[in-house]
Every structure is written in C-alpha cells, then in structure tokens.
Amino acid sequence: MRHLILIPVMLAGSLTVSACSENAEETVDRAFQDVNVVDETNLNDVMLTVADPNEAVDYFQRALEGNADRIDLQRGLAKSLTRAHRNTEAVAVWGKVVKMDGTIPDDSIDYADALIRNNEWERAEQILDSVPPTHETFNRYRLEAMVADSNREWKNADTFYETAVGLTTRPAGVMNNWGYSKLTRGDFAEAERLFGEALRQDSSLFTAKNNLVLARSAQRNYTLPVVPMTQTERAQLLHTMALSAVKQGDITTGKSLLREAIDTHPQHFEDAVRSLRALEIG
C-alpha cells in the first residue's frame, strides 16, 4: 500500500517539475523577445541619428521585407530618405505613413517638410492645414513660416517665426531663415539684426555669416562684421561682399575686395580670381 501511495505522489512531482520547466522556458523566451525588441529599438534609433543616411535607408528597407505594416519601420525609412536628400522617395513613403494605423501629427509635419524639400509647396500647405491647431511644435511653426514666406504673407510669416523661436533652445537656424525673409523684403537693417542674433546663438553657422554680409552690403556697408571666422571663411565673405558691391555699381570697391579675398585665402581662390579678371577685362 505504501508503494501505491507513492506512485501518484511521484507522478504529481514529475508533473510539477515538468510544468516548472515549461514555465521557465516560456519566461526565458519572453525575456529574449523583450531583449530583441529593446535591441531593435536601439538599433533603429542609431540608424536614424549617427548612421550614414543611405545605409539607414538600406537597413529599413530590409527590415520592412515581410513587415510592411509596421509604421515604426516605414517612419524610419521615410526619415532616412529625407536625411539622404532622396526627397521624391521620402514624399512617397511619408504619404504611406500618414495613412497607416498609429500615425501621429508629427508624421504629417514631417510629410510637409519632405514636400517642401521637394518643392511641392501647395501640397505642403494642405498637409499643414490638416494638422490640429492644438498641436504646437517648433517644427510645425518653422514650416508654417516658410510656407507663409513662399506666399508672401509677411505678417503671418513673422508671427510663425517668432512663435518657432520661442519653442526651441536652438533657434539659430530659424533666426537665419527669418533674417533671409527680411532680406528678400528689402528690410536690410532688420535682416542684419536677425543674422547677428543667429550667430550669437551659433557662431559656426556660415550661412548666417554670409547672409549677414549680404545684409550689410545692401546698405553699402563694406566692412566685415565682428564675428568668429576662419581665414578661408574670411576670404569667402570678402568675395560675397565684392560681388554685392559690383551688383550695386560700386565697381572700384568690388575690385579692391576681390584682391583682398585672393590675398586672404590660404589657397588659390579660383572664383575670386575669375571674377576679378572679368571685371578688369570689362
């Protein structure tokens, strides 16, 4: 009898061990799945930030094989195409993303960005208009300002630029765009001020330095601004100033600035040499 009693007890024990073993295996499997998800998420982030844009495109295209319904991968592909300046392709993928389950307002804003890069301003405006007005972000207002500029809606552009500046801790780029908007309107003094503000935020922004020289030259101020610059940048800015002077009819000043640019450049400055030669022949 004692042995008969032990049999079911032993069977129960073996079943318990088996169940524990299965639960342990399931736990391990789930753990590895969780690890894989984390690893994939980290890799996706890496591909979107530090990876070569075209390598990132290849990565997301491979990841989408058999996973075309995953919006995170489609979004990653669209962002990578934008980073790679493959704008037509980016527009096509963003067009898919905004129609998928799980799309968010930022997807539409990135879609509008891609459309602007592809010179499709009207469609970009339509997409931005579809974003709820309560979704207030730096990128949204930065793009709204650019669209308003393209429509020559100056008052709206200024409002959007001002709002965008207040929504970022790194406003140099948008200040430069705002300054260029003022420059195209002929408000040279205000453009000069905005370019100076942009450089106070980011002294390495060469585009703002070049635009600042254009704004000063438009006022016939042919002296370089007091901003940090390399010797090569100094030569390039002198060249820009020279061309601006020539355009305004100040030929003698333009020639003098071109000679200074040639002497300043640490290497042979072919563009300045060609411009000076053309003026002297003319």
Automatic annotation (TrEMBL):
Keyword Signal recorded: yes
Signal peptide: 1-19
Pfam families: TPR_16
Keywords: Signal
UniProt cross-references to PROSITE patterns, sorted A to Z: PROKAR_LIPOPROTEIN (PS51257)
Keyword Membrane in record: no
Record-given protein name: Tetratricopeptide repeat protein
